[in-house]
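During the no-cost extension, the postdoctoral fellow (Dr. R.K.) reprocessed legacy sequence entries with the updated structure-token encoder. One reprocessed record is reproduced below for audit purposes.
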Amino acid sequence: MKNLIASLFLGFFFTVSGINSAIAESNPETEQSPEIAILPQMIFCGDTENILAMPLKYGEVPFAEMNGSILTPANQEIPVKITIYLNPKDWNYSFIADLGNGQSCLLNAGTSFSPAGPRTRT
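Re-encoded structure tokens follow.
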């Protein structure tokens, strides 16, 4: 468990080959596209109770849930349950990943949450 938490603190990496494969499978025209950069990210992880105290401190409430996964620097995929917390008064938000073992991570937090604008397909 300590190794997992240490790995999470070191950052999460997306594998270029895995991303490129997924993109190529969904759209064969992208096979010639430039590589996607790997972005290490430092995130807060710890006991779920302590992590959930962060969005609750800012008046955020659960808004949406989804299943997802995160990749460790060792290219280990970890299934997680992601919950979006939202403050309906000031639109602050947090994305929390529940690792399912009493540990959670704050993946992202910010301001100005809003619906996406119109999207056009090309």
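Helices lie at 2-10, 16-26, 48-57. The CA atoms of residues 20 and 34 lie 9 Å apart. The remaining legacy entries will be reprocessed before the final report is submitted.
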